[in-house]
From TrEMBL:
<protein>
    <submittedName>
        <fullName>Outer membrane lipoprotein carrier protein LolA</fullName>
    </submittedName>
</protein>
<keyword id="KW-0732">Signal</keyword>
<keyword id="KW-0449">Lipoprotein</keyword>
<dbReference type="InterPro" id="IPR029046">
    <property type="entry name" value="LolA/LolB/LppX"/>
</dbReference>
<feature type="signal peptide">
    <location>
        <begin position="1"/>
        <end position="19"/>
    </location>
</feature>
<dbReference type="InterPro" id="IPR004564">
    <property type="entry name" value="OM_lipoprot_carrier_LolA-like"/>
</dbReference>
<dbReference type="Pfam" id="PF16584">
    <property type="entry name" value="LolA_2"/>
</dbReference>
């Protein structure tokens, strides 16, 4: 009788986990559909890096403009432009510009254009806690990388239940490093310049241009 109860309990846990996974998958699908429905997205964000063992505690702010697979990212004093074919990394401190070709079909290439839908492959996921953040209901989904070589232990993805927008992303590394990206503002369908994603070399007359490929 005890063995039957144990088996029933295990089955109950399995069914409960599958139900949670379906809920998580459904919510992630809603986030993906919402992102793809916009013509463009403009995000201001805060990025924090913490490692108590190494006594590291860093905060940075940035912003990114996204349209399709094109983007302009301003972060840590640098500007990165991707026009759909090439990436231009502009470093004012060094007066240097690095130009490289990016294969957007390469799953290992992490780009801002993938940041809002990265979770669609390579992870196991389950529903986590629901928090109230300044009047907003944030549902967290736990993502576990399926690649054993991945240096990330887990990712908590916070999703605004009402808007289906990503609120924050908390990434914990296997060596204890924790990075948190928090969205401060999320604007959509903004009026953009026709040259928003075009690199104009004449704007940087004294810069050294380094073609990496």
């Amino acid at each position: 009788m005890k063995k039957i109860i144990q088996i029933a309990f295990i089955l109950l846990i399995c069914f409960s986990t599958q139900a949670q996974d379906k809920k998580a998958k459904s919510l992630l699908d809603e986030v993906t559909a919402k992102v793809k429905s916009y013509n463009n997205i403009v995000i201001d964000f805060k990025y924090s890096l913490n490692n108590s063992k190494e006594n590291i505690n860093q905060d940075s702010k940035g912003n990114v403009t996204l349209k399709g697979n094109q983007y302009v990212l301003n972060f840590m004093g640098m500007t990165k432009i991707f026009d759909g074919k090439k990436t231009y990394t502009i470093v004012p401190e060094d007066e240097e510009i690095n130009i490289s070709t990016v294969d957007e079909n390469d799953d290992s290439a992490i780009t801002p254009s993938k940041m809002l839908t990265f979770f669609n492959s390579g992870y196991k996921y389950s529903m986590n806690i629901l928090q109230n953040v300044r009047g907003r209901k944030i549902q967290y989904i736990k993502l576990i990388p399926t690649n054993p070589k991945d240096q990330r232990k887990e990712i908590l993805l916070g999703i605004d239940v009402q808007t289906k927008h990503i609120y924050n992303l908390i990434e914990t590394g296997k060596k204890g490093t924790k990075t948190t990206l928090t969205v401060n503002s999320f604007k959509t369908n903004q009026p953009l310049s026709k040259n928003q994603f075009t690199f104009v070399a004449s704007k940087y007359p004294n810069y050294y241009i380094n073609k990496l490929d």
